Amino acid sequence: MSKLPQHEARGEQPAPDQMKLTARQAARLSKVSGVAVEQIKGHTIADLANKLRWHVDPNLFLFRQICGQVVKTDPGTGIDLPVPFATVNVYDTDCDFLGYFPLDLPWAWFFPLFCEREFLGSTIADECGKFCVWIPRFDIDWILRWRLEWDCDPIFWIKPSIWDILRHLELIPVPYPGPPDPGPIRIGELMKENGRPLQKIIELLGPERGTQLQVALRNAAVT
Asked: Which of 118, 122, 123, 210 could cross-link 202 (Cys pair, CB 3.0–4.6 Å)?
């Protein structure tokens, strides 16, 4: 009978460099390193760092720490509240995208299609809902290279702000003063025609941001 590794015997997650690469990770590392995928799959990054020393850029075997916070939006106030000790599952997700470029708007939408997900691991958030995970450097490089290949326009990947949308719909002064004060929102304009301008904004922003805008407008009207 073989003996379990210490981290498995204690029921803990292995160190990041001791986890075996998934099939998708092996394919990505193969493409950025030039090493055949057959030499990579089924190995840990620690094994590969020794096996491919002096053959592959050692920076590819490093890790980046990515941190975040688990929050839940209070429907009454629109404020994001931390969720303490939440279980955070980490997935590697690849998607194809369908682009939508309406002629009457200066923005485009990308809708994910045919997404594939691989479970990488899990962690527990702290008492403030904050957590950190380690991501292999070659995964970061893969994403950056993909963006460079498709970065044909410097502003292509910049998301519009809520103020950009309000300005386009002429619901704030144009040009507006700029940060930190974007100028007054014409709340009365939003409620014209039974609130059709407000509904148009919610359609553009999506349900989550639309709800936050409604809460903000309601609080502004009360004050």
From this structure: 210
Coil, strand or helix: which one is 30?
helix
pLDDT at 91: 86
pLDDT band with cut points at 50, 70 and 90 for residue 107 = confident
Q: Cα 105–174–214 angle (5° rounding)?
A: 70
Which 3 state secondary structure label does DSSP give 98?
strand
How far is 123 from 151, CA to CA, in rounded Å?
33
Helix (H) or strand (E) holding 205: helix 192-205
Structure tokens at 188: 């009365």
Structural domain boundaries of the chain? 6-150, 162-222
- For the chain, what is the mean pLDDT? 78
Residues in the chain: 223
Q: Return the axis-axis angle of helices 23-33 and 137-150, rounded to nearest 10°.
A: 70
The structure's pTM equals 0.60
Query: Which residue in the block uniquely carries the two structure tokens 């939408």?
Result: 109
What's the rounded Cα separation, in Å, for the pair 151 and 142?
14
Handedness of CA 200, 204, 208, 210 (dihedral sign): negative
pLDDT 10s digits, 6-45? 444 444 567 889 988 988 889 889 988 899 999 998 899 9
